[in-house]
Write a structure and sequence with these properties.
Number of strands: 18
Protein name: Mitochondrial outer membrane protein porin 2-like
Mean pLDDT: 77
Structural class: mainly beta
GO cellular component, one term: mitochondrial outer membrane
GO molecular function, one term: voltage-gated monoatomic anion channel activity
Largest sheet: 14 strands, antiparallel
Strand content: over 45%
Family: Belongs to the eukaryotic mitochondrial porin (TC 1.B.8.1) family.
Number of helices: 1
Helix content: under 10%
Order of helices and strands: HEEEEEEEEEEEEEEEEEE
CATH superfamily: Porin
InterPro entries: Porin_dom_sf, Porin_Euk, Porin_Euk/Tom40
CATH architecture: Beta Barrel
Distance between the termini: 62 Å
CATH topology: Porin
């Protein structure tokens, strides 16, 4: 058999194999590949065989005869998410993130670690039921061997009212908030917020009311203890676009010209 006949026969076998098997998949799969204008190639491959999902994320940059490639392959449980980001040559901005969420128990845990010699570790955790939720978050600096930031909060949810207590800024700021909803449709709501700075024993108070005029328009107004009155009108032009009209009046100095704000958000 001549070489040309062998090659022709091989092409027929390849064509037959493509017709019989190419494109068919017995598993769930997703493949995405993109290339930027500066030559960075990014790939994402996800597979699910039975109940065992797995994914591979990679990036590659070629420059002259040198190439930098970063790949992460991981298998995860349905409620666990692991991702890492590496930046060259700025290693200090690289991070490793781990998120765990248990939906049937309404619990979540998130850990973020910087990939350097003295990383900052960010930790947040939350647990919730249908009527109450509580959570905490903190930042630990390994170079100083101390927590540089932490906070915690509790929220109570009810069909007619919501209330929350938050301790933030390393335990220096205490914030208490309460919202009361009127009617079954909750179109009108009144709210109040009290904050207290424990380091200087200073407190502040703000109250307000919100009204849902229709499916596209919402109006609200707030007033704080410094005499600042702030009305706001929010109108949705379409699902992803909106128009905001706001103002600020100083009730303790009505002779001053009020501040007017206009914001348009438009998404095609």
């Amino acid at each position: 058999m001549t070489n040309s006949r062998r090659m022709k026969k091989k092409r027929h076998k390849t064509l037959a194999a493509d017709l019989l098997s190419k494109g068919y998949c017995h598993d769930e799969s997703l493949d995405i590949s993109t290339q930027s204008c500066n030559g960075v190639i990014g790939t994402l491959t996800a597979r699910r065989h039975g109940r065992r999902p797995a994914a591979n994320i990679g990036a590659r940059y070629d420059h002259n005869n040198a190439a930098i490639a970063v790949n992460f392959f991981y298998k995860y449980f349905p409620s666990t998410n692991i991702n890492a980001s590496l930046r060259f040559p700025e290693y200090g901005s690289s991070k490793l993130n781990l998120k765990f969420q248990q939906s049937f128990r309404n619990a979540a845990l998130s850990i973020s670690v910087g990939l350097n010699q003295s990383p900052d570790i960010l930790l947040s955790a939350a647990i919730a039921t249908s009527s109450i939720a509580c959570g905490t978050e903190s930042k630990y600096k390994t170079a100083a061997h101390c927590f540089t930031w932490y906070g915690a909060g509790v929220s109570i949810i009810n069909p007619s009212h919501d209330a929350s207590i938050i301790l933030a800024e390393r335990g220096d700021l205490l914030r208490l908030a309460y919202t009361h909803h009127f009617g079954r449709l909750r179109k009108i709501s009144a709210f109040a917020e009290v904050t207290r700075r424990l380091s200087n024993n200073k407190s502040s108070l703000a109250i307000g009311v919100s009204c849902i005029v229709d499916n596209l328009t919402t109006a609200k107004t707030t007033l704080n203890d410094r005499g600042k009155l702030r009305p706001l009108l929010l109108h949705k032009i379409k699902p992803n676009s909106s128009l905001n009209i706001s103002a600020e009046f100083n009730m303790k100095a009505l002779d001053k010209i009020p501040r007017i704000g206009l914001a348009l958000s438009w998404k095609l």
